[in-house]
């Protein structure tokens, strides 16, 4: 009986020769190794490279990841910069960072190369530069960066929580050759600590060149967030600011007000109260500088603050209006019966202070 495959191991010259059975069966019929064989086909492997290594698939995967990975520089390696770096590093991107404070050890633990000098960092030619500096400092930082050391096609991304301001200063200070992507990941180290799944990521492609590699680079960058499950929302910077003042700024304000108020956990906390405690925890980790930046650099913030103030006053008015009604009833309806309760009501109406002589005078309508 003929062997199914015969091989003569020897040096590459002459090449290895294999004998494969050739079946005179129909093309639709699956090959079978059982019937007796009439013909043999001689195949010659002409190159040893034709043989696939055992880890061929994982090699392909690594190659694919490498082709998708970006060289990314983070400027401003504080709270948010480090938070971003964790995910970027896990996704296999090459990370560099610069900050005015030395974060060499933290950077090392996150797989990031830390530079003490922005000139050195820019000479490493990152493909993407992410601005993670505070809202208040970014304009000053932009004016001092040595952009001439970067490649002229570099993509500059910002993550500032206010977008019109960011867009305007980027357009003002960056060389025209650079691409600009304004973004706002609408989550942070607290709200996004376990997962980014379903969390909104807002972006505006402010200026992206027409070349294919520039278009694909911005898509690869956005893919960092899409891959984590973020809800990708493309909108203009102006639209973002309008929405953010009514949601993010109000959230931060309420978190800070409740923190000052001094919320404390209680053994009989309701679900609603738990939500308030979570809100305080979510916002208290952010710097006051960030909050102040939301107020100062979003032109819609002041209006929202005034609306909050008015809403609070309106609620108080409604409550005290009812109280006033009860008070009048006590004064005129049951003048004698309510006598004991009156001082308590008066105290409440005057915020705990003793009422003045005028205030207790009954109205003469
Ligand atoms: N925290 C969040 O949840 C969140 C979410 C989305 C977007 N963002 C945005 O991310 C950016 C960073 O936020 P953050 O949470 O890390 O806190 P932040 O207080 O707003 O910013 C801190 C960062 O700004 C740098 N910085 C401050 N003043 C500087 C100056 N005069 N010169 C140079 N650098 C200066 C700090 O550098 P050093 O550490 O070296 O001092 C640090 O890297 C902000 O633009 C914020 O709006 C934050």
TrEMBL record:
What InterPro entries does its record include? 6-PGluconate_DH-like_C_sf, Arogenate_DH_2, NAD(P)-bd_dom_sf, PDH_N, Prephen_DH, TYRAAT1/2, TYRAAT2_C
Which keywords appear in this protein's UniProt record, sorted alphabetically?
Oxidoreductase
Name the domain of life: Eukaryota
* GO MF term list: arogenate dehydrogenase (NADP+) activity; NAD+ binding; prephenate dehydrogenase (NAD+) activity; prephenate dehydrogenase (NADP+) activity
Give me the ranges of the annotated region Disordered.
338-365
- Prephenate/arogenate dehydrogenase domain location is 70-349
What's a GO biological-process term for it?
Answer: tyrosine biosynthetic process
- What name has this protein been given in UniProt? Prephenate/arogenate dehydrogenase domain-containing protein
User: Organism source for this protein?
Assistant: Salix dunnii
